[in-house]
Structure formats: structure tokens, C-alpha cells
Here is the input.
Amino acid sequence: MIVWLNGTHGAGKTTTSALVQQLLPDSRVFDAEKVGETLMDIKPGLPPTGNFQHWPPWRPLVVETARRVLDYTGGTLVMPMTVLVEQYWREIRSGLAEHAIPVRHFVLHADQDTLRKRIEGDTVLGPSSFRLAYLEPYAEAARTWLHDEAEVVDTTHLTPAQAALRIAEAV
Here is the structure.
């Protein structure tokens, strides 16, 4: 099974995923961003894009990597990854379904002010214009499709541990 933690930057996906992994027996964290980083390392580079998710190989490689890891280890993969383009989410979800891999899709949500404060106050990554640029696309995805496709966990007033416990209990 896959427990997919979606949501924009600052929602708490990375921190929460590590805590969910500790609560779910036989689970591992797989950050699909690493697949994107691998594609970014290709020399000479792939066609320029502002987001590796726009490269067509990224989505099937995420599916294939998750499938292969699950075939090897079994258990649960906890995957913290923002996907805000509906077509991309549908490609990933249908690819996983083709391999009969169940997915529990959660969106970690917080209001725009909270997200902005978290991003600007991040002491690990520091403030990031890249991360801030995704606040509006997230809000648009949330309004139009994303919240209908997932179980929404509002993290505005939750600690990551509280959010992780809600997700683990739901799974």
C-alpha cells in the first residue's frame, strides 16, 4: 500500500511522513522528489522546465520505482510529494492501480497565512521564493480538484505528530 502525503510546501509533508512511518508497522518513506533529482542530474540536461514533474518520464518512473520497492519489501510506502497538476496525479494513480497497489491519498492543508509563515520561518531550508510560488497553484488545485481526491488533514493548528497520528489511525 502507498500512503501519499500531498499538499504544498510548508504543509508539513516531510516531517509528518517520518512520523507516520514510525506509527505504521513495516513501512518506509519514499520521497519521489529523488526521482526528479535523478532526472535533473542527466547530462546534458533534459529540456528546461521550472518543475521536474513536467518531464514526461517522471510520473511513470515514480510508479515503477514504488512498485519495484513494494515488490521487494512489501509493507507500506509513505510518500511525501506535492502533486498539484490533476493530469499528473491521475497518471500516477492509474499507474499504481495497474499494478494493484492501493493508495491512501492525504492532503496536508493549512491556510495561506500559516503556509507563508512556515516557509518564511523555515530554519532548515530558509525562506524560498520557489516554495512561496506554489501557494497560489496549491490554492487553485485545492479549490478545483485536489481536496475532492484525497482525505484532507488541516495542519493549521496541528503539530506534525498530531497529523501523523490522524493519518496512521485512518490507515
Observations:
- The mean pLDDT is 95.
- The chain is about 50% helix and 15% strand.
- The CA atoms of residues 45 and 51 lie 13 Å apart.
- The beta strands are 2-6, 27-29, 76-80, 103-109, 151-154.
